[in-house]
Each structure stands twice: as structure tokens, then as C-alpha cells.
Amino acid sequence: MLRSFSNNSSIVSTYDFARFKHIVDIGGGDGSFLVEILKCVPNARGTLFDAAPVVERAEAVIAKNNICDRCKTVSGDFFDHIPIEADCFVLKNVLHDWSDEKCLRILNNVKARMKLENKLVIIDSICEDEYSQIFDFGMWFTFGGKQRNLNEFKNLLSKAGFEITHVLTSPELPHAIIEATLGD
């Protein structure tokens, strides 16, 4: 699925990515979200981490936007290992694709690369209504994933050793922005 630049710009204008030196977009798809961040944060470096065939498409988007000097790609499987250290790890539209068990594998792999002062930024829908439950059935049937409410995100992150520090929602945002750090 290609990510819209308009949605990306509303997220980037809402969340302060400027405080980070190195941002990793895990499961970053075509790279458009990371490109949008790096265009707005010219002092940051970025790494897109995704499966090899996806990384090839992202490399073209990165090159087209003339940020190859600040952005690289790494291919791999986020269920097995994330070989990158950074001060910000982003999961945009990733966790809703997977069961709690698989999300815990992803989150534990992120946690293995984090330091106490680093941030995990999850950008995803937070469901609270019947429509979301219908969509949840479709996600479960197709991928084994699920839409989560805020308590389910808190529980999932807590099981992985994270603590939510901020939740940003707004009618202008396509998704919620959940910031987490390593828990005590």
C-alpha cells in the first residue's frame, strides 16, 4: 500500500521529529513517510528497514527526493532481528497487521536495539467503535492482525517492556501517534 504524502505531512507537522538524529522507519514500505520526515528535519539521518523487494522500491523514492546522502535502506525481517540502532524507531501502520504474539516479536526486536533515552513512535489507528470492529475482523481474517483500542496498545507495549509517554490524536490526523520508551 502506498502512503499518502498529505497524511504524512499532517503527522510530521504534529509530532516533533526534529529532536532526533537518526530515525528508523521499520516496515517503512515505499519510503514516502521517512522522506517526508527527512524533508522537514534536515539535520536528521534516516534508515528504512523492510523486506528486500520493498526496499528496492524505497530506494527509488529516496533517490527521487535527493536525500541519498542522509537516508539508507536495510533489508531484513522484523520478526527475526532489527540490525539498526537509532534514537527514534517508527512503526507506522505495522502493528495492526499482526496478532499480539507477532507484535511482541517485533517490539522485542526493537527493544533490543534501544537505549533508555530512545523513543518508539507508533502511528496507527486506535479503534473504539463498531466500524473498527468490522475492519478488525477483516484484518484478522486476512493477516491475523487486529485493530486495538488504547488499553490494548498499553497492555501490548507493557508486555514488551515499554511505557507509553504520550498519545497524540486529532481530527486532522489520519491515525494516533503513540510515543513510548523503555519501561522501568
TrEMBL record:
Every O-methyltransferase C-terminal domain range: 9-163
Kindly provide the name given to this protein in its UniProt entry. Acetylserotonin O-methyltransferase
What's its EC? 2.1.1.4
> Carries keyword Magnesium?
no
Q: What does this protein do?
A: Catalyzes the transfer of a methyl group onto N-acetylserotonin, producing melatonin (N-acetyl-5-methoxytryptamine).
Q: Which organism is it from?
A: Dinothrombium tinctorium
Query: Which InterPro entries has this protein been placed in?
Result: COMT-like, COMT_C, SAM-dependent_MTases_sf
Under Gene Ontology molecular function, one entry of this record is: acetylserotonin O-methyltransferase activity
Q: Which UniProt keywords apply?
A: Methyltransferase, S-adenosyl-L-methionine, Transferase
Q: Which GO terms describe its biological process?
A: methylation
Q: Does the keyword Transferase apply?
A: yes
